[in-house]
Amino acid sequence: MSTSPIPPVLDQDRYAVYRPTAATTDFALGFPLFGEASDVAVYLDGNQLALTSDYTVRSVSNGASLTPAPVSDAYVRLNAPISAGTLEIFGNFRPRRTIQASAPYGTRDFNFAFSLLMAALREMWSKFTRAIKVPAGEIELTIPSSTDRAGQVLAFDAAGKPTIGGRYADLMASASAAGSAATTAISAAQAAAESAEAAALFDPAAYPTKDQLTGLLQGFVPTGRKIKVGKGLLLGGAAGSDAAPVANDLSNDLLLGLDMGALSGLLKNARFITASGNIQPSAGVTKWLGFLVGGANDGGASSGSNSGVGAAGGAGCLFLAGVSDAVGYAVVIGGKGGNSSVVVGSTTYTANGNGGVATNGLVNLTGAPCSDGTITGRSSNAGQIAIGATGGDGPFGLGTGGGGGMVSNWTGFVTRNGIAARGYGAGGGAAAGLDGSGVGGAGTPGCLLLLEF
After folding, report:
1. Chain centroid to CA 337
2. What does the pLDDT read at residue 369?
3. pLDDT tens digits, one per residue of 194-247
4. DSSP for 38-98?
5. Alpha-carbon distance 220 to 255, whole Å?
6. Are the beta carbons of 29 and 16 closer than 8 angstroms?
7. Which of 38, 324, 423, 441 is 20 to 30 Å from the Cα of 432, by its Cα?
8. How far apart are CA 176 and CA 189, in angstroms?
9. Residue spans per domain, the chain
């Protein structure tokens, strides 16, 4: 055996760390190796590598041979080079005694055995410093059994003892939901900022009631469609609920009315137009506040066991335009399902029919969709009910969609026709059928409500 001196065990961890920036395979241990290659543990980015398949331990002076021990120039050689990441090398001696010493027991043998023990103790001490420990004076720190803690999060009870803290999957789901809620809140805040201008245009305090408008227009404003506010937006402090608002769509539960007290000295006339033509403002009028409505189709017919489709409502365009009482302006009023438009100068305000869109207004409302039809009850010849889809309402509260037909087969197979819409821009209700046929309810045409100032 070599008579080279036994290296000392220094007051430092038997540990080395590397962060290469170029392709590298060899990494020095930096501490003497008293045993075998398996007495070294190697980690790359926190994942333990496997001896032989991922790396080998070699000696600069003796190559693949790690004898005679101890080896002071040992290094790890990776099977594949790395140029990034964190490589960690730990002393990982497994206490064992495979050779019994016999006399005479020399100084070198004594130093080797004693240094080996010190190296092993140093590695245990290093691991101990990284372990979870209770403060001095506390004794028990027993975690729940593997059966109890499987899939759970470790927590501590009121006495500070380890306990089960809840299912990991449930906590992750809650964290994910909280993250989604935070994202939604951020989006809502952004949308609220974008709606500030629209909110300034339509302050509910300045438009308190629909009854005043109804009285002014001699009953031409039935219940129905309301101005809406998109989900995540605020209009005068009222939160909206539309799932997917479109640009400039002020949609939710704020009735459109006018503060007649504030406008009594300005409003010169109110006109309700149901036919196309050139419309000339009343004498002295310089501004139009218009509520333009597209037409809506009849509801769909039923055939056999299939119900018809309800008709969508017409679009609504709320516009403000400067006009001259010396000029006639082209107005088109859409019939059932037709498009309505008003041309003032170079701007054309549109409200398309049958679920279409509106353009160029202060508020552009897409036509209201119809509801879904249903069939409920048993499939036998007695006990089923079919209900056709309800037509979409007209915009600005100017029309109410027709109800869907209702059919039962309690007294035999029959059909019921859809119900006609009321007002303007409202879709007809769908016919419902159980092995029969029926016709949809009538839709209503468009219109133009003009307030002249």
Report:
1. 35
2. 83
3. 665 555 555 555 544 555 554 544 444 434 344 555 555 555 555 665 544 444
4. GGEEEEETTEEPPBTTTEEEEETTTBT---SSPBSSEEEEEEEEESSS-EEEEE-------
5. 15
6. yes
7. 423
8. 20
9. 15-129, 139-194, 269-452
